Amino acid sequence: MPEQSTEPRPTLEAVAARAGVSRATASRVVNGGEGVREPLVERVRRAVDELGYVPNQAARSLVTRRHDAVAVVIAEPETRVFADPFFALQLRGISKELTAHDSQLVLLLTEGRDDHARVARYLAGGHVDGALVFSLHLDDPLPGLINGVPTVYGGRPGWSGGSRGAVYVDCDNRGGAREAVRYLVGLGRRRIAHITGALDQTSAVDRLDGFRDVMVDADPALIVESDFTLGGGERAMRELLDRCPDLDAVFAANDLTAAGALRVLRERGRRVPEEVAVIGFDDMLPVTEQADPPLTTVRQDIEEMGRLMARLLLRGLDRTVSSAASGSSAPTGGAGEGLVGVPPSSVVLPTTLVLRASA
User: Fold this and answer.
1) Rounded distance, CA 294 to CA 358, Å?
2) Is residue 133 packed enough to be buried (19+ CB in 10 Å), middle (13-18) or exposed (0-12)?
3) What confidence tier does 166 reach under pLDDT thresholds 50, 70, 90?
4) In the chain, what percentage of residues exceed pLDDT 90?
5) Contact 141, 117 (CB under 8 A)
6) Phi and psi based region of residue 68 (left: phi greater than 0; alpha: psi -120 to 50; beta: remaining)
7) Closest by CA position to 305, among listed 72, 120, 138
8) Residues 6+ apart with CB under 8 A from 59
9) DSSP string, 270-301
10) Cβ(65)–Cβ(98) under 8 Å?
11) Angstrom distance (rounded) from CA 349 to CA 228
């Protein structure tokens, strides 16, 4: 075994002495505080490198109130999370941003109602600096339970009460749906069906509204509610063909739903796009490019959405650290006040229609 070093670990006092500054100045630089002149910052950083100083995390947390960990809460069971590429893409974006800021990702899933209190207790216990929450359903109690934890949401909030001022990242679901359906109309399609997502989620509601913006007088029989899954798309497509065999186009609420619809159309001998054109939503390449035929879809940048969620949260937390390191007190708040010192600045990303062989 290699011989362990018996030399004492360098202290913050040693860093301050090497840099020729006070301990308070060295602490402010090490902990990311503001108000230190750049030449002094460089001297402290050089001393840290020369001495090999590693901050004591427990002591640093007392000063900064930071744990360098962020909870990612997905309000779905693990069977859904690990089967849907959407979540992998969003987690990848979140992970990249957190890693770049030397922060850890703590993944929390809610299998059912019993898990909500467990997640709320964990978040309130001070284990993490904040939370990124997505795939919420309209009756989900989580937003109320995690009040007081800096939070950014994935998707437009739609729960009753308390959503005003909540910071979120979303895409233009309604505008993207309109563009898809207008394209189908431009192809000369007249019996255009819509397979919705789960209508207790705002993304599905917005995409249905976008469909109705164009198909103002759509036959109600051409709209079938589904759940954003492959199996749900198959079931909905069978129902549509049974009651509306003359349909000539389908706009599906996401790519998995569209892939399920394509399977059923192929089983029923309906040629795509000659007889029935199909458009999805998301542009998840593992799904769209492997579909038969490759899927025309509305693209939202899922990975970028995850990255922006993390960035918005970290930006607010950095302001908190700066206030703590400089000795001022920083307020805390709930979902709408989680970005301390930063006005709510939600982000809605644009969408684009990506043309492939299915429409």
Assistant:
1) 6
2) buried
3) confident
4) 57
5) no
6) left
7) 72
8) none
9) --TTTT-EEEEEE--HHHHTTSSSPPEEEE--
10) no
11) 20
Rounded Cα distance, 214 and 179, in Å = 9
Torsion of CA 159, 91, 314, 157, to 10 degrees: -10
> Which residues face 340 on adjacent strands?
none
Mean pLDDT of 75-91: 91
Q: Which amino acid is at 226?
A: S
CA angle 178, 169, 132 (to 5 degrees): 140
pLDDT of the residue at 57: 52
Show Cβ contacts of residue 153 under 8 Å, excluding neighbours closer than 6 positions: 132, 133, 134, 136, 143, 166, 167, 168, 169, 309, 335
pLDDT tier for residue 319 given thresholds of 50, 70 and 90? low
CA dihedral 18→21→23→27, nearest 10 degrees, is: -90
Beta bridge partners, 154, equal 134, 169
Burial of residue 9 (number of CB atoms within 10 Å: 0-12, 13-18, 19+)? exposed
pLDDT digits (tens, 9 = 90+) for 107-144: 999 877 778 888 988 988 888 999 999 998 888 888 88
| Residue (of 216, 225, 278, 226) closest to 247 by Cα position | 278
Give the model confidence (pLDDT) of 228-270 as tens digits: 999 999 999 999 999 999 999 999 999 999 999 999 999 999 9
pTM of the model: 0.77
Go through 102-113 and write b for each residue having 16 or more CB atoms within 10 A of its CB, e for each that does not: ebebbebbbeee
Q: pLDDT tens for residues 170-217? A: 999 999 999 999 999 999 999 999 999 999 999 999 999 999 999 999
Dihedral, CA of residue 221, residue 222, residue 227 and residue 233, to nearest 10: 120
What number of helices (H) and strands (E) belong to the chain?
A: 14, 12
Buried b (16+ CB within 10 A) or exposed e, 267-305: eeebebbeebbbbbbbbbeebbeebeeebbbbbbbbbbb
CA distance linking residue 154 with residue 303, whole number of Å: 12
pLDDT at 160: 59
Three-state secondary structure call for residue 108: strand
**Is the confidence at residue 15, as pLDDT, over 90?**
no
